[in-house]
Amino acid sequence: MNDLSYLIYILVVIIGSIVGLLISYKKHGEPFIFNDMDSISVIIAIIGWILLFNYGLFVSIIGFISAMIIISIALFLVTLVIGMRPGYGRKETLIGIVISAMLWFISYMLV
Amino acid sequence: MINISYNSFLVIDTMNLMANVLINVVIAFLLGSLLLGLHRKIMARIQLRPGPPVIQHLLHSLKFFFKETSFPKTASMPFYVSITCLYCAIWILAVIIGPVTYGTLLIIFAIYAVYKIVEHNAGSSSGSPYGKLSCVRAVFSAAAEIPLFAVLAIIFLQTGTINIGDIVTYQAVHGPLIFSIPLAALVFFILILSKSPYSPFSITKGKDIISGFETEHFGVLRGYMMLSESIAWYVLLWVFLTVFFGPLSINGYLIGMVSITAITALINATTPILNPNHSVMSQITLAIVGIGGSLLLMFIV
Q1: B27·A7 Cβ contact <8 A
Q2: Which domain holds residue B70?
Q3: Which residues pair with A35 in a beta bridge?
Q4: Which of A35, A74, B52, B276 has the fewest CB neighbours in a 10 Å radius?
Q5: Could you give the ipTM of this predicted complex?
Q6: pTM
Q7: Chain segment B205-221, per-residue pLDDT in tens
């Protein structure tokens, strides 16, 4: 069971990366890189990293969803942004990590 | 009645084992591919290139399964085809011996020896001059890499066993082997470095001979080769981490594998490929220093 969940996570990471790559190439076909940030990617990254860092919190709040499902969704969203075309999705990922780490720290301090 | 229940237990056990093998082989392929993709990405970033996405190696491997397979006129059939199947089979066997059953390291050693023979034969079976050169170099490198793998003797002398499961138990009691036999760990790391892409020691796949023994394998055959490469990378990292870093959690394995891949990428990106003679002599020197030094340390301390 442990190995199976590990396999599911790897598959989710791969699918997320492929989807992210396809979407970003469809959106940005130009031969150069835009430096401005994409708001949708930021939102996806923040949701993904919050879910990944705080899955324990969400499992305790929403009792009927298992941790494996939350981690899988989180990994899909996170790799959707990380897996984007080279040069895209870096700043968004960084913002996602910082915000989710802050939320994790706050929830850890409160509990 | 007892016989029926015993048989049904046996069937369930066998099915569990089969499922375990299947899951572990798929994990080895997917994670190995991702790690090799990461290796390429890190090398590119060090060389100030953007580099391909991390999943590129996996996509590349899968792509070959849908490409047309063509055969060189000079290929010696059916040897040319069967060698790729053998390449794949030995590393799948390594997954079964390693992560699935925690079997004996001696079989992994034997698999590595057969792998060097497969490299040799894959090169010679195509009839290409590049393959032929790679085939000769595979014999050279076998002479150097097999002594590197002989570090198993040190592990046996330290732990009194060659069984991976027992070595893990030993480490759970006495601490990781990397602290007691660090030189042996260094020698094994050199072996992993030799197997990594664009390594200073990877003379069989040096770009001076195009892609070495892989040059004349196309389509599905190349797909099998890339699949085996990914599994081999995963298995070698798994063996290194299990044997020298003791009982690890899945996160521990993941961090360890990513770290070793990053370190090898850093080394490979900053060092040129060595001349075959220099490569072999460096490896043999490191093997002698590592094994001799470990023995000396064991007798002195």
Answers
A1: yes
A2: 2-300
A3: none
A4: A35
A5: 0.86
A6: 0.90
A7: 877 777 777 777 888 88
